[in-house]
Amino acid sequence: MPSQEDIARIILLGIGATAVMDIWLILMRALGVPTLNFALVGRWVGYLWHGKFAHASIGQARHVRGELALGWIAHYATGIAFAVLLVCIQGIEWLIEPILVPAIAVGAATVAVPLFVIQPAMGAGFAYSRTPTPAKNCLRSVMTHLVFGLGLYLSAVLIAWVWE
């Protein structure tokens, strides 16, 4: 069973990696590359609470009160969940001596969630198949999740350094 210290490290790991991903998204937006609107994620989550999983187009669904905040909370909660996944796979020792490859591999694997669960449920189809540029959108998603994986590693290194 992980200690409270381990749990704190894992939470910080997820927050740090998600923040690195967000910096990437800010950079992409500054370069004119479209990125995910977290209000739409919040709208989708809001509808989940009412038992509706799939939408023809989440953008056309009625707004949900507090959807932007809900989207950001879901985004960071997901980052923490993925950090838990990495530590479950690698063991708690990984937090003390992080290795790059497992972090990148988990980051790459997490792209399955948006491609095969969230985007289809929001109406964009599997792997963005219902969008005008599916391949480009998939590539953006893969890159973003690789950056998340890098964020897992960088955050773990920083946390290990600060904690010692």
What topology emerges from the helices and strands here?
Blueprint: H1 4-30, H2 38-48, H3 67-90, H4 100-109, H5 112-122, H6 134-163
Helix pairs in contact: 1-3, 1-6, 2-3, 3-4, 4-6
Briefly summarize what is shown.
The chain is an all-alpha fold. The protein is built from six helices and no strands.
Helix content: 55-70%
The residue-averaged pLDDT reads 96
Count of folded domains: 1
How large is the share of residues in beta strands? under 5%
Extended strand count: 0
Main sheet overview: none
- Structural class of the secondary elements? mainly alpha
Categorize the overall geometry.
globular
Ranges where pLDDT stays below 50 over 5 or more residues in a row are none
Characterize the structure shown.
The chain is 69% helix and 0% strand. The protein has 164 residues and is mainly alpha-helical. It has one domain (4-163). Helix 2 crosses helix 3 (67-90). The longest helix has 30 residues, at 134-163.
Key traits:
single chain, 164 residues, 6 helices
